[in-house]
Amino acid sequence: TRPVPRPLPTAVGATIAAAVVGNALIGKDDLAWLYGLRQPRMQLPLPGFAAVGIVYYVVLGCVIYRAADRRDRIATRLALVVLALNEVWNLAFFGRRSVRAGFLGIVAFLVPLTALQVAVSRDRTSSLLLAPYTAWVVGYDVPWTLQLWRLNRGPAEGPQQERPMRQRSLRKKVRSSSTRTSGCSRAAKWPPTAGSLQWRRSV
Fold first, then answer.
1. Half-sphere exposure (CA, 13 Å, Cβ side) for 135?
2. Which residue, 62, 63, 60, 71, is CA-closest to 121?
């Protein structure tokens, strides 16, 4: 295989570029949209996702560096593909604001990630570094995005679930209003009885 020039600039440049692009694709409105959805119980708080992201970029940087340093073009290309597709997932999920795209995208993301895990199996250090992230994607990202999709299918789901509650409150208001009206009608019966307000006034 032909050598990959300058392993360190390749690894550092690729990871920093991916991190900058990825953060540029996610704005405050996108985060507000995410945390405005119905959230699974396994949903991480924002600092948790940030910590995972930092570890991810460090791991991928190390994997790219080691692959380029040992002149493994297949592993280097796969690592760069994984790095790029992670940002494509951000674009599909946050850019389109689609929980469906988020789930399907993470399933598709597993293909190059698994291939990378296999490609670095000869390098024990890279394999051990990448394995926890691969396990994270399989054990957390896939079920999380699946539950997020199930809980938020269709834009009309939220209002449809709120509608019965509004109807119940409306019925309560109608019943209380009718009760007050019926009470007034009973108090205004004629002719007045001896103990009624009308009788005392007439006396």
1. 6
2. 63
Question: Which residue's structure tokens are 């394999």?
Answer: 127
The verdict on whether omega for the bond into residue 132 sits within 30 degrees of 0, i.e. cis, is no
Q: Name the percent of the chain lying above pLDDT 70.
A: 73
In the predicted model, residues of the chain with pLDDT beneath 50 are 156-170, 174, 178-179, 181-182, 184-189, 196-203
3-state secondary structure the chain: CCCCCCHHHHHHHHHHHHHHHHHHHCCHHHHHHHHHCCCCCCCCCHHHHHHHHHHHHHHHHHHHHHHHHCCCHHHHHHHHHHHHHHHHHHHHHHHCCCHHHHHHHHHHHHHHHHHHHHHCCCCHHHHHHHHHHHHHHHHHHHHHHHHHHHHCCCCCHHHHHHHHHHHHHHHHHHHHHHHHHHHHHHHCCCCCCCCCHHHHHHC
pLDDT score, position 66: 96
Q: What is the pTM of this model?
A: 0.72
pLDDT of residue 79: 97
How is residue 26 written in tokens? 């996610």
Q: Which residue has the tokens 């119940």?
A: 168
Neighbours of 34 (CB within 10 A): 19
